[in-house]
Write a structure and sequence with these properties.
CATH architecture: 2-Layer Sandwich
Helix content: 25-40%
Oligomer: single chain
Order of helices and strands: EEEHEHHEHH
Number of helices: 5
Largest sheet: 5 strands, mixed
CATH class: Alpha Beta
CATH superfamily: Ribonuclease H-like superfamily/Ribonuclease H
Shape: globular
Strand content: 15-25%
Mean pLDDT: 77
Number of strands: 5
Radius of gyration: 16 Å
CATH topology: Nucleotidyltransferase, domain 5
Distance between the termini: 32 Å
Amino acid sequence: MGTSDKLHPEMSVPPIYLFTDGSFEFGRRAPGFGWVAATPDNRVLDQGSGTVADDGTRTFAGEAGAVLAALGWAVAAGYRTIYVHTDLESLARHFFRDRERGSHYSRRLFAFRQAHPEVELVVRKVSSAEPLLEKAHHLARAAMCPVDRDGVAELPEAISIARGLEAVSRAA
């Protein structure tokens, strides 16, 4: 049994693998995100997508939104050993460095880490050709909001994650 296959000693819950991706395209106001949750043998358990407000970081906002939404799902489902798979090499540092002057989403990633010390979090850079990361990418691209003819993003409330993430933070 490899280290990634071991059960978390306190929870007796197997680890969860989260594949996350964000997407941004000029002409669309809201970055999209997608995530896929899978077992270590790549059996898909759940997935999600939506949009986040662009704080000026564009694609990073989508990437961080994907991770925050997936982590919120995983923690609420009782997982405590979480592997985040992403194609964004710099993502891990946002969890472990306090960035007072960082972007809104950078601060949220760090705040998640501080609020959940019980979670064993491993962030892995994987190839964008990884099938489940590719699935997350397609979810992110599909979630990006179109812009109406006045240049205003059409943001259906059902795909906004802000309220859901705040609820997860308050519950912790």
